[in-house]
Amino acid sequence: MGKSRSVTVTIAYLLRQYPEHTVASALSLIQESRPIAEPNDGFMAQLELYKEMGCPRDIEAHPRYQRWLYRQEVDVALAAGMAPERVRFEDEETQEGGISEGNEVELRCRKCRRTLATSPYLITHLPSASKTAPTPSPKSPIASLDSPPDHVACTHHFLHPLSWMRPALDQGLLSGRLECPNQKCLAQIGRYAWQGMRCSCGIWILPAFSLHKGRVDEVTKRPEKVQSQGAGKDGFGVASVGAADESGGIRLPPGMRGKGNL
């Protein structure tokens, strides 16, 4: 009928050949000569993804497209009331964008201090403004909202599936506990639910892989900066003891700071 599939292919062509076009503007251009042109919602969502990816010629190997395909597998499995046959562990996949700028957050087991997740694998979500605010549908995609939240009301950290969860997720259950991967610890640190979980702030995460804030510590690591006069840095971006400061003195240990330089 020349309404959905063929229009989708034409829009994709326009997006690649004329980068100034958006999905909406390309569709409007086509509708000038073909008023019934109207791709279905699924095709429109894929076109938006294609535009965000930069309209590559090879989309099959693109990490974002692979993630989209995996979401479809998860949706089909959940519709059948089953856990997905395979799990995409984000720390085993190619990451986009390289090292993020700014402070990096590490989540560590409170009992044994084992690092469980870092900033690239955390899912940020925006808490509801009030208890009466509308709650997003449980059919939301795996990735949550992008806005930086105020997590004061949240009792859980949500993250993407990571390889240390494999023993729990390989059981093929729809929900269960998450334990610290340190075999000498094995503390219960959270839980997972393929059908989704509602955060204490009111936002629904689907699927949900959560760490309870009372079971983990959140450590902020400052990005390293180039030191003048060859001063070194430790792993948390804190100047090493004995490193020279800007005035040429000696930086004191933490317990003696504030008493001046030697």
From TrEMBL:
This protein's name: protein-tyrosine-phosphatase
One Pfam family for this entry, by name?
Answer: DSPc
* Ranges annotated as biased composition (Low complexity): 127-144
Q: Which InterPro entries match?
A: Dual-sp_phosphatase_cat-dom (IPR000340), DUSP12 (IPR016278), Prot-tyrosine_phosphatase-like (IPR029021)
GO cellular component labels: nucleus
**UniProt xrefs under SUPFAM superfamilies:** (Phosphotyrosine protein) phosphatases II
Give the residue ranges for region: Disordered.
127-146
UniProt GO molecular function: protein tyrosine phosphatase activity; protein tyrosine/serine/threonine phosphatase activity
The residues covered by the Dual specificity phosphatase catalytic domain are: 1-51
Nucleus keyword on record: no
- Keyword annotations of the record: Hydrolase, Protein phosphatase
EC annotation from Swiss-Prot or TrEMBL: 3.1.3.48
What Gene3D superfamilies does the record tag this protein with?
Protein tyrosine phosphatase superfamily
Q: Which family does it belong to?
A: Belongs to the protein-tyrosine phosphatase family. Non-receptor class dual specificity subfamily.
